[in-house]
Amino acid sequence: xxxxxILHIASWYPHEESPYEGDFVDRHIRCIxxxxxxxxxxxxxxxxxxxxxQISNYENCKVYKRLFQRAGSLSNYxxxxxxxxxxxxxxxxxxxxxxxIHCHAGFPGLSLSSALAxxxxxxxxxxxxxxxxxxxxxxxxxxxxxWHLNKYISKADIVCPVSSAHxxxxxxxxxxKKINVIPNVVTNPFFETLLKKSPSPSKLLHISxxxxxxxxxIDLLKGFNILKNKRPDVSLTLVxxxxxxxxxxxxxxxxxxxxDIKIIGPLEHTAIPKLMTEHDLFLLWSRYESxxxxxxxxxxxxxxxxxxxxGGITAENNETLGHLSKNYTPEGLADDIDRTLNRYDEFDxxxxxxxxxxxxxxxxxxxxxxxxxxxxxxx
Length: 379
Description:
About 40% of the residues lie in helices and about 20% in strands. It is built from 14 helices and 13 strands. Strand 11 (about 280-285), helix 11 (about 295-300) and strand 12 form a beta-alpha-beta unit. It is an alpha/beta fold. The radius of gyration is 21 Å and the shape is globular. The chain folds into 2 domains: about 5-185 and about 360-375, 3-Layer(aba) Sandwich (Rossmann fold); about 190-360, Rossmann fold, CATH 3.40.50. Helix 8 (about 215-230) crosses helix 12 (about 330-340), helix 11 crosses helix 13 (about 350-360) and helix 13 (about 350-360) packs parallel to helix 14 (about 360-375).
């Protein structure tokens, strides 16, 4: 007799060529697997020669990775489906039928997930993370991805956007049967660091992909440059696992003063909680967001956040958690940082952490998914 399990189809997941890709999806699935055992399937076209399927065991969770030789984009998609069907047949032979399919991020896994759910007559849950629904301009490749998502998203029994703003964007552009917003998870280490509050706040922090098109890094840097005229003591730390070279080029091209700007990365996720407690204010100045996990992680670390309203959980920000900026200019950013640092004594970092714990902790998110699975009568 086989154990009850959920089959997770992950479109994004860490792998040997990109160890940070979809690491938040990995954490999300491990959290869910505390409610019901999970088996993860992840396929990816990579530059190295074809390798055998990799199998890893974690507590309550088993991961199957199929990494195959990169070809043309259409060939990659076809090969993904061909190999995945073989691999999943092997999984089902060894473990029996899953009680549900749970797809994480829609491309390319949603078409595979919908076919499996239909074939085995089991529920399909779809957790979406992509910002593609918020983007005003799409490349040709992004338009093809959106066509794929729009075609298959209606097949899901429940779609789980990661924020209310994300839900609104998806509903405006796609037909879905049912929506249940469940946030990304903040792992326990962020709630376990020693809370610190500086007597003279001056250390600013930004962590992201450092993609200028989405994160608007150039205006963030310009705002910091303006702020330096008011507050010569401030410093800025930029952390990213990609696009660091591009950011350095932007700094040079726009003649941004590098004094008191520190750029670091790649950085293991386990190092971030301590880094956050060493800073006084987190900054996010994005054009669009689906969730913005780093905001929730900042609050879990007792770190106030200054951001503009760009989707995700940015709209939750308020005067007790930091500051929500209404002036989306470098000058507005500089003024708002200055005002927020001036009232830094007002922030109760214990209450900021408590806010995050109630909404984004492993216990909270696991319970939400447990309730969702129970609503589908699969547990």
